């Protein structure tokens, strides 16, 4: 449950109002001389007129973040004088600042009321700049409360008013905000339309900050959409503009967004690098950035299962959000802490965190945070087996998620409802929720993007190496020309010797570069080989057969049995897909996947297979990490090909031993044996899984620096029936899991 990452951090600010000198000041905190000067002028000007109103408003604005009490006092006097002398613009300006005070305190409803009053006054005097700014701030209120439809409505009203002025920069800012609202509801096509319109204006007026911000927004839409190569391209363009124009803050925020991108790809170490770069650039006054980055670090360490470090960063984030009275940020961090307690099954603490978050979100009408709290409360109550109470929170979460298009929460709550309905005996609703979950989950799952980002990174490194080689070649060519001119008058032979040496250097340099390129190409081929293996793990025949069995159960109205079968099938499919995205998995997880596969096969096989698993006492299945999906294809091969239909006493034995620093796995069956199986296949045709697994083991053996092999024997050679497969599996030991 994350704090929304779309724009990394959002700050409230006043656009330049050219028609009133009050709005021409730059709202920079800490300008003591400016404040002292305003106080002196206010002391000297005691007459209750428009000038004193403007001075009071300026002082209120200067104090509106650090000293709200003084700001409020100045505003009350300003409103009283404006009302007495009939100064409409002064009164509207004071109401505008009151709305901002409410915003800083996260009292959004009160802020909307004050802004609405200001808009009504601005419209009576046709001051479009003020009207546009008020609608923009109202849109920001709604944006920060996840009410994006209302935010879009206010931003469009602001756009209409701004188009009646000649303030193109202010118009670009409103277009930019519209882009973020569409991003937040996953309407990335419309989001990019508004970002590009804002970018075009910023390019026309040569606003470097605006250009960098718009390109960052476009990058975020591609990142959220799963198009990581294009996202990376736009982030790099953002950094180029920011570095060229020394926009330190944009560099800092872009590093944070790059961290978000790699965190989404589960490249946690790389994400941490970018987050720490953000912290290096952040100042002590950048509390919003610091608190958000600490939360992101907490999320990343939680992804790495380092819960103690995650909680440490969450606590830092929570403390900073409390300091600036950002209740929205506090609510999201509390949800994240609750997630840790939920994952470690500390249900009382998890419930307490979610409850605190729910209370804060209700107070400020933070709908996205509220939906996450409801989800957490439902999952916590499930852990305590309080299913009826859990259902109440789950339904609240589902309604919020659907109404406001919170897709990540919607996906999780549908899965949660399946569990609740199963445990309360409502199988019809359980099946309906599972279908909805499957449809939504499939629509947001894109496994091809990891390959794309890897490919783009390799291309980027390749281009860097190529550019570097071209520069070296140019320098060498210049050296040749200079040398020839200097030595032409003296020794002709010496010149040719120098040229010969330089040419040899070029050849050697080219050979070195070509070797490096071949190395990168070999890495890409390894990735493709592994993808071929992963796609071949679960045969289409098995999947089709499983779905056919499930269809038969449903048609026969075997509700309980069909739900059990569906649950086991989806769990097996999920474990297979999750395993395919990891380079190493615990041996215990691999064996659990195989157990799930055999259990599922036995549900529709008559007579069932007699499957046994024997793990030697010297094997620690939690600490041993192995490449995923090496064993399962051979177990599946036994099931599919080793036995005749309806053959009795079908036995499959799986053994794991650890001898002489080698991890040995044996798969034994009492079926037809190799010779009979081969006779039924076409000549020269090998098992796809066997061929690819053999290739993969050879490459893994080189990579791990230890033995890796595959041996298939006919047990008839030993006077027995069936086949024996022996795998020597390369491994690594995870000391933290011991």
TrEMBL record:
Molecular-function annotations in GO: phosphorelay sensor kinase activity
Domain Signal transduction histidine kinase internal region stretches: 530-603
Protein name in the entry: Uncharacterized protein
Organism of origin: Sediminicola luteus
Keyword Transferase: no
Keyword Transmembrane set for record: yes
Domain Histidine kinase/HSP90-like ATPase: 632-731
One Pfam match: HATPase_c
GO cellular component: membrane
Keyword terms, alphabetized: Membrane, TPR repeat, Transmembrane, Transmembrane helix
């Amino acid at each position: 449950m994350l704090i929304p990452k779309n724009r990394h951090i959002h700050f409230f600010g006043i656009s330049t109002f050219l028609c009133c000198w009050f709005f021409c000041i730059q709202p920079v905190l800490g300008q003591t001389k400016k404040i002292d000067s305003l106080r002196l002028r206010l002391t000297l000007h005691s007459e209750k007129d428009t000038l004193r109103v403007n001075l009071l408003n300026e002082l209120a604005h200067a104090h509106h973040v650090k000293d709200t009490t003084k700001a409020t006092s100045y505003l009350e006097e300003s409103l009283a004088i404006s009302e007495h002398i009939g100064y409409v613009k002064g009164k509207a300006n004071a109401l505008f600042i009151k709305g901002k005070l409410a915003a800083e305190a996260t009292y959004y409803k009160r802020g909307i009321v004050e802004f609405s009053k200001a808009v009504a006054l601005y419209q009576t005097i046709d001051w479009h700049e003020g009207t546009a700014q008020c609608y923009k701030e109202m849109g920001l209120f709604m944006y920060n409360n996840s009410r994006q439809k209302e935010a879009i409505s206010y931003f469009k009203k602001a756009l209409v008013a701004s188009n009646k002025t000649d303030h193109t920069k202010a118009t670009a800012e409103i277009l930019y905000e519209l882009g973020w609202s569409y991003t937040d509801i996953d309407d990335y096509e419309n989001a990019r339309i508004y970002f590009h319109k804002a970018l075009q204006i910023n390019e026309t007026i040569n606003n470097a900050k605006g250009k960098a911000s718009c390109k960052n927004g476009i990058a975020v839409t591609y990142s959220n959409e799963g198009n990581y190569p294009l996202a990376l391209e736009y982030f790099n363009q953002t950094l180029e503009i920011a570095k060229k124009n020394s926009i330190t803050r944009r560099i800092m925020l872009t590093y944070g967004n790059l961290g978000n991108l790699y965190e989404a790809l589960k490249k946690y170490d790389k994400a941490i690098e970018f987050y720490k770069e953000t912290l290096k650039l952040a100042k002590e006054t950048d509390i919003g950035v610091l608190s958000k980055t600490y939360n992101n670090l907490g999320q990343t360490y939680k992804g790495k299962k380092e819960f103690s470090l995650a909680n440490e960063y969450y606590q830092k984030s929570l403390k900073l959000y409390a300091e600036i009275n950002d209740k929205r940020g506090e609510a999201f961090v509390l949800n994240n802490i609750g997630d840790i307690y939920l994952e470690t099954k500390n249900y009382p603490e998890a419930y307490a965190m979610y409850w605190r978050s729910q209370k804060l979100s209700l107070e400020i009408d933070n709908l996205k945070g509220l939906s996450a709290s409801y989800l957490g409360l439902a999952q916590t109550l499930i852990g305590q087996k309080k299913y009826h109470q859990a259902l109440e929170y789950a339904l609240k979460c589902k309604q919020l998620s659907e109404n406001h298009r919170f897709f990540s929460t919607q996906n999780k709550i549908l899965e949660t409802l399946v569990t609740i309905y199963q445990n309360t005996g409502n199988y019809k609703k359980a099946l309906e929720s599972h279908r909805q979950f499957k449809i939504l989950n499939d629509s947001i799952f894109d496994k091809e993007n990891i390959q794309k980002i890897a490919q783009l990174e390799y291309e980027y490194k390749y281009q860097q190496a190529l550019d570097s080689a071209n520069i070296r070649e140019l320098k060498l060519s210049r050296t040749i020309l200079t040398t020839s001119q200097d030595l032409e008058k003296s020794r002709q032979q010496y010149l040719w010797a120098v040229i010969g040496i330089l040419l040899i250097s070029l050849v050697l340099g080219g050979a070195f570069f070509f070797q490096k390129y071949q190395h990168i190409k070999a890495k890409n081929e390894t990735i493709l080989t592994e993808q071929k293996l992963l796609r071949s793990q679960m045969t289409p025949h098995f999947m089709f057969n499983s779905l056919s069995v499930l269809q038969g159960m449903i048609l026969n109205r075997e509700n309980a049995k069909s739900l059990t079968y569906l649950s086991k099938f989806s769990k097996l499919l999920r474990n297979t897909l999750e395993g395919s995205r990891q380079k190493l998995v615990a041996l215990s997880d691999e064996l659990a996947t195989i157990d799930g596969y055999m259990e599922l096969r036995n549900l529709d096989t008559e007579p069932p297979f007699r499957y046994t698993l024997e793990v030697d006492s010297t094997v620690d299945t939690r600490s041993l990490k192995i490449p995923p999906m090496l064993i399962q294809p051979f177990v599946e091969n036994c099931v599919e090909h080793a036995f005749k239909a309806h053959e009795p006493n079908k036995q499959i034995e799986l053994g794991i031993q650890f001898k002489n620093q080698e991890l040995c796995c044996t798969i034994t069956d009492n079926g037809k044996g190799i010779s009979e199986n081969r006779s039924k296949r076409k000549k020269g045709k090998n098992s796809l899984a066997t061929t690819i697994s053999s290739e993969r083991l050879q490459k893994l053996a080189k990579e791990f620096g230890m033995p890796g092999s595959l041996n298939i024997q006919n047990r008839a050679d030993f006077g027995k029936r069936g086949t024996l497969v022996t795998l020597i599996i390369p491994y690594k030991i995870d000391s933290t899991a011991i």
